């Protein structure tokens, strides 16, 4: 039985308050560095931020439950995510997997809600990048049901939540910069339009009876490819696990907090100093689980130089990242065996090397990774 770890909870109020003293920010930065280098995952909270309240957490959880409680016909009307890297819409059961194992979850992806006129102008000028575009909401009849008599309440709740999480991510960037002995605004320079390409994923994990995890699982063991992942887990059901000290250990939910973990790109930029943790989601076989995960990215065209000038260590030296793995299923690998990309040697490791060398930008690379985990034929 996996045992809970003593994962720290860090109050990041000083990073969210522009009037905070430098010494206060530095204190938080030290805590962040210790957590990143020990576990790669930790909790954050702030009594001054509106997100960290039971009322707001319950609003988001209730909205998510209502969405996944829609009947099969209503879910079938929600646009499904498509291959190509731009992930908006419904993720059916079996529609994604980072391995050969079927993942027993359904999801819904959304992000920045563009003002209608601005979106129309950008589409007309063809000025949206590959990670920007409109959200794929349920049809109006379903939205009316989800609103429960309050016009636009469902979308407003999810948008408010998304923008709050992006605001918190911006504060974390300051602390991470300071933790790496860099100017406070160093990472922020590469994240000027992050909220327009980052996105939120609502997940509903289904219970399953197979405790061997050989054929099905909530989410396959993986590291996150990107920069920062911010997770709200209001369900008290145990599910998220971290691989630490050569065993799987539980990461339980805490009230009024977010779970934070670093991504592969951030870890590689620090030569492995900051850990991108291997994690998974499992089921006790009886209970459903809900979580909300924000994947916070640097700008699409970002080419971030190495952030530390130290010897490559640990995870970076071993290359133990999902970012460096080919996560396509066997059919996709067979279909692409003679493609131009394959002939050019565009395997995961060579493309990652180009990313770190500044030969390609972040957006183009992350699109290629999302394409790898798309699964044809995911069923409702």
TrEMBL record:
- Per UniProt, residues of the Fe2OG dioxygenase domain are 196-298
Q: Which InterPro entries match?
A: DIOX_N, IPNS-like_FE2OG_OXY, IPNS-like_sf, Iron_ascorbate_oxido_reductase, Oxoglu/Fe-dep_dioxygenase_dom
The record's annotation in Pfam families points to: 2OG-FeII_Oxy (PF03171), DIOX_N (PF14226)
The protein's matches in PROSITE patterns, at most eight in alphabetical order, are given as: FE2OG_OXY (PS51471)
- Keywords noted in UniProt: Iron, Metal-binding, Oxidoreductase
GO-annotated molecular function: metal ion binding; oxidoreductase activity
What top-level branch of life does the organism fall under?
Answer: Eukaryota
Which family does this protein fall into? Belongs to the iron/ascorbate-dependent oxidoreductase family.
This protein is called what?
Answer: Clavaminate synthase-like protein
Q: Which organism is it from?
A: Linnemannia elongata AG-77
């Amino acid at each position: 039985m996996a045992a809970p770890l003593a994962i720290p909870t860090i109050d990041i109020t000083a990073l969210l308050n522009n009037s905070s003293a430098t010494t206060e920010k530095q204190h938080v930065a030290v805590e962040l560095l210790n957590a990143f280098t020990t576990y790669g995952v930790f909790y954050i909270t702030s009594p001054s931020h509106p997100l960290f309240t039971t009322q707001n957490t319950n609003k988001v959880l209730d909205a998510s439950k209502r969405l996944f409680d829609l009947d099969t016909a209503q879910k079938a009307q929600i646009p499904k995510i498509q291959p190509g890297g731009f992930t908006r819409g419904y993720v059916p059961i079996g529609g994604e997997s980072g391995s050969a194992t079927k993942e027993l979850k359904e999801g819904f992806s959304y992000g920045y809600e563009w003002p209608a006129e601005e979106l129309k102008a950008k589409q007309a000028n063809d000025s949206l990048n590959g990670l920007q575009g409109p959200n794929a909401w349920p049809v109006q009849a379903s939205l009316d049901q989800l609103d429960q008599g309050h016009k636009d309440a469902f979308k407003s709740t999810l948008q408010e939540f998304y923008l709050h999480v992006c605001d918190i991510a911006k504060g974390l960037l300051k602390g991470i910069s300071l933790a790496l002995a860099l100017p406070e605004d160093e990472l922020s320079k590469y994240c000027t339009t992050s909220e327009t390409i980052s996105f939120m994923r609502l997940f509903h994990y289904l219970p399953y009876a197979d405790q061997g995890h050989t054929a099905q699982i909530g989410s396959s063991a993986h590291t996150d490819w990107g920069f920062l992942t911010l997770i709200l887990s209001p369900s008290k059901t145990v599910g998220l696990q971290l691989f630490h000290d050569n065993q799987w250990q539980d990461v339980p939910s805490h009230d009024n907090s977010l779970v934070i973990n670093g991504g592969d790109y951030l870890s590689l930029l620090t030569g492995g100093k900051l850990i991108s943790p291997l994690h998974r989601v499992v089921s006790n076989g009886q209970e459903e689980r809900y979580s909300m995960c924000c994947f916070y990215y640097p700008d699409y065209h970002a080419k971030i130089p190495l952030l530390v000038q130290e010897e490559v260590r640990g995870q970076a030296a071993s290359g133990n990242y999902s970012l460096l793995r080919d996560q396509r299923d066997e059919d996709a690998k067979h279909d692409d065996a003679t493609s131009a990309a394959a002939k050019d040697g565009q395997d995961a490791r060579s493309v990652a090397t180009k990313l770190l060398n500044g030969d390609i930008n972040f957006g183009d690379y992350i699109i290629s990774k999302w394409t790898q985990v798309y699964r044809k034929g995911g069923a409702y």
